[in-house]
Amino acid sequence: MKKLIIYIVFVTSSLFIFSDDEPYTTYTGEVLQCNFNEGKGLDDALNMVRNDWYNMAQSFPAPYEGNVVTPQLYASDDGGYELFWVGFTTDNNAMGQVTDWFSDNASQVFAKWQNIVNCSSWSQWDIFEVRASQADFEEGDSNYWAFHSCSFKPGANVSDIVEDDKTWNKFLDSLGHKGGVWRWWAAGGSSLEETNDFYVNMGFDSMTDYGNYRDARLQSLVDGSYPETVVNCQPPRVYSVNNIKAISN
After folding, report:
1. Buried residues in 62-97 as b, exposed as e (16+ CB within 10 A)
2. Residue 21: band (very low, low, confident or very high) from pLDDT cuts 50, 70, 90
3. Cα three-residue angle 97-54-65, rounded to 5 degrees
4. Which tens digit of pLDDT belongs to each residue from 168-211?
5. Phi and psi at residue 140, to the nearest 5°
6. Entry pTM
7. Which CATH number do you get for residue 144?
8. What is the 8-class DSSP label of residue 106?
9. What number of other Cβ atoms are within 10 A of residue 125's Cβ?
10. For residue 232, is it within any domain?
11. Which domain holds residue 190?
């Protein structure tokens, strides 16, 4: 996934049904892809959103979670973005409510944001929770996201994904992975040049946690325990995530 400042909110109430007996918890996310203005940096952005934006966000008409995201492991052709704002809501209606409220009430805070960064894109995403996080989380915590660009193998499609997720979750259980896994489908504002079917985002408490997962994955490829799946995924891009506001506050 190209580097972005991501504006995303996580909530836990809405469901999307692939089949009658296999509901997925779903979210709507929004992402801003940004670069710092001259003389500005990450500390400036974090100080502003932890104070001005956070205080304002207490008045949002719907639950919202906000995160400042920066690239950790990346390639030179990923887009070159330095910062992403990522936010999540329960569904598209809630995201629309927050967006309308922000347009009507946030001009002063948004001007401070624009003084720190300039953002070249704003996109929305439909997000399916494949695996709920078992990690302890408190507002203001930091963690890491590993984004994989994925596409269905020839002959496979969405109808195969429920059973595939069961297989994948059993494998992650065997590795002791406690982080969440989310599948991101492109929605409004997403790039028309993307050729993949979706993204998979895996959560990790630390880079040590990420390294342990990679070691276990490599070992499974050696010993033959790595499961066959219906998708092909590219090597991940890894991002550092600074939570600003939890969905519950």
Report:
1. bbbbbbbbbbeebeeeebebbbbbbbbbbbbebbeb
2. low
3. 55
4. 999 999 999 999 999 999 999 988 888 899 999 999 999 999 99
5. 95, -5
6. 0.88
7. 3.30.70.100
8. -
9. 26
10. yes
11. 6-245
